[in-house]
Design a protein that fits this description.
It is a single chain. By secondary structure, this protein is mainly alpha-helical. It folds into 2 domains: 2-129, no CATH class; 138-190, no CATH class. 83% of the residues lie in helices and 0% in strands. The chain starts with a helix and ends in a 16-residue tail after the last helix. This is DUF2059 domain-containing protein.
Length: 190
């Protein structure tokens, strides 16, 4: 799918430029190439946008959900809510993804052309195509996982102690007994 989007982006930008004029700026081809070489990163941004929108929905509905749904029905309602949230996320992903090529052509490619010389665009393309950058991008998820596991392990006791302090302070403010301790977050398995 990503290769198809990249091919469509390159074809769309190239066709658009070719239809505008035969003597188009020579930087256009290289700007299109640089944007296409970053398509995986752009796809990640789309995922982040969808995730943020889903988080906003959950944040808005959580208080209403907790107060309006009887305890006996919460498990079933949670399942239904999560199903609808997954549908929303899939739809939002399609909506945003459908605009990526257009926004690349109308905004990102011209921005690269404006900010970089032809030689710099060629250098950027060479950089993104280099084997070491490809290896770096392939290794990044694993490297982030290694970092996060160590960071969680080294900070978890202090963070959990701070959660307890917060619970005591919040209980005084709200006027109730502290909530049960939060479950310890488990490291994600890959």
């Amino acid at each position: 799918m990503k290769k198809l989007l990249t091919a469509l982006l390159v074809a769309g930008c190239t066709f658009s430029a070719a239809s505008q004029a035969q003597t188009a700026d020579p930087k256009l081809e290289w700007a299109v190439k640089v944007v296409a070489l970053q398509q995986a990163d752009l796809d990640g941004i789309v995922g982040q946008l969808v995730g943020t929108a889903a988080q906003d929905i959950v944040a808005g509905w959580a208080p209403r959900f907790d107060s309006a749904v009887p305890k006996a029905r919460q498990a079933k309602a949670t399942e239904e809510f999560n199903t609808e949230l997954a549908k929303f996320s899939a739809d939002a992903n399609k909506i945003i993804t459908s605009k990526v090529g257009q926004v690349n052509s109308e905004a990102l490619v011209p921005a690269y052309m404006e900010r970089f010389s032809l030689d710099e665009l060629k250098q950027l393309a060479a950089f993104f195509e280099s084997p070491v950058i490809k290896k770096y991008k392939a290794a990044t998820p694993e490297l982030v996982d290694v970092f996060l596991k160590k960071l969680v392990a080294s900070t978890q006791p202090d963070v959990l102690a701070r959660v307890k302090q917060f619970d005591v302070a919040a209980s005084k403010i709200v006027g109730s007994a502290p909530a049960a301790p939060a479950a310890k977050p488990q490291p994600q398995k890959k």
